[in-house]
Write a structure and sequence with these properties.
Blueprint: E1 2-6, E2 11-15, E3 18-28, E4 37-41, E5 44-47, H1 54-59, E6 64-66, E7 74-77, E8 83-87, E9 91-96, H2 102-113, E10 119-123
Length: about 130
C-alpha cells in the first residue's frame, strides 16, 4: 500500500444539531506548484494527472474515509452514502457526513483549532 499526503485545507460545513460535513481533497493533480508532486527517491517524482480516479469513481468503488488510516476509525463510506467522492479540475474531492462518535467529534475539534489541516490517501499500485 502506498500513502500520499495532500496539501490544502479541510473545511467544515455546519449543520443544525449535527456534526459538520467535512470536505477537502484526498489527492490533488499535478499543476507545477509545490506539493502537487511526490518525491519517491532521488531524481524520481510521482505526479497524479487528471483522470486518474475516473474509473474508480465510475465503478463506485466502496472507499472508506478513515482517521489516520485506521480501519477501526471509520468516518464515512461510499456504500453507506456517508462519503461522497468526486473529481474536479483540482483533484479528488471528498465530503464526509461524520458519525456522532468520539473520534469524529475529536476530529472536528482538531480541524476547528487548526491542528488538522490536510488529508492523505492510500492506494495500491497496479
Amino acid at each position: 500500500m502506498e500513502r500520499r499526503t495532500t496539501p490544502g485545507k479541510i473545511l467544515l460545513e455546519n449543520r443544525q444539531d449535527k456534526l459538520p460535513v467535512i470536505t477537502g481533497y484526498a489527492a490533488v493533480y499535478y499543476d507545477g506548484t509545490p506539493g502537487t508532486e511526490f518525491q519517491l527517491w532521488e531524481n524520481t517524482v510521482e505526479r497524479i494527472l487528471p483522470g486518474s480516479f475516473d474509473s474508480a469513481l465510475a465503478r463506485k468503488d466502496d472507499a472508506r474515509a478513515l482517521f489516520n488510516h485506521d480501519p477501526n476509525l471509520v468516518l464515512g463510506r461510499v456504500s453507506s452514502g456517508t462519503l461522497r467522492l468526486s473529481a474536479d479540475s483540482k483533484g479528488l474531492k471528498y465530503e464526509i457526513v461524520p458519525p456522532v462518535t468520539r473520534t469524529a467529534e475529536d476530529l472536528v475539534a482538531m480541524i476547528q483549532r487548526g491542528d488538522v489541516t490536510g488529508s492523505s490517501f492510500e492506494f495500491l499500485v497496479t
